[in-house]
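User: Fold this, then the next.

Assistant: Folding the first:
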Amino acid sequence: MEATQRQGVDVVLNSLPGDAISKSLSVLRAYGRFLEIGKTDIYQNRMLGLLPFQDNLSYFAIDLDRLLRQRPETVRSLFAETMRHVAAGDYKPLPRTEFPAEQTADAFRYMAQRKNIGKVVVGSVGLRTKPSLRRQAARGS
């Protein structure tokens, strides 16, 4: 909240289940939009408190699998638009922590902590892991 001078953010893209939803809703500013791409809580019919919505928040459940099956042209168009922005340098890649294949178990332990920001990547050949990320992953932080 400090980064937004306690105003909150306009959009949250969420895929984490459970308490992460309430925490993410709490950082939305008034009239913010919550985009849910996770399925766990939806298919488990988890209850969601409505109090945060007094600030005119919007909640969107987005089933990407269904969208791809039922509206493939929309997905193609959105993907093409996204790739144009990537090529133009408008979008930057997410941070990532990489593990060599022989450390797959370590990668899963690291993800289980739910402290990572960005992606966790497991590969087998030619990983270009930054040493700082490799050390961070080895420490489990």
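Now the next one, as you asked:
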Amino acid sequence: MRTPLTLAVLLLLIATSHGAARPTQGTARVIDITAERFEFWPSEITIAEGEEVELRITSDDTLHGFRIVGAGTNVVVPKRGKGRATARFTGTTPGRYTFECSRLCGAGHNFMRGVLIVRASGAAR
């Protein structure tokens, strides 16, 4: 009689600790970005130092790229209706980070840029 109870408690502890050992999901703030006709919207994003964001990029026209210069982020944004790209970014160092289209998308491709601003902790808004 004691063995089934011990086994049940042991299985419960294993199941509970397994779930707790996984990294928590959903801690990042989600920011939706739209790419269309040589611009990103929004084209200026401000986050706090140390904040993690999940950037969800969709296209309202053709295939685009999304690169954060100097951050090692470079994803392909599918054509309209074909899904979205997701990138995570953590603002570990205050400053301005340029993001741009990284796939040739037409005549105005070179103008397709924006900025991600990381504000220092305690900085006035």
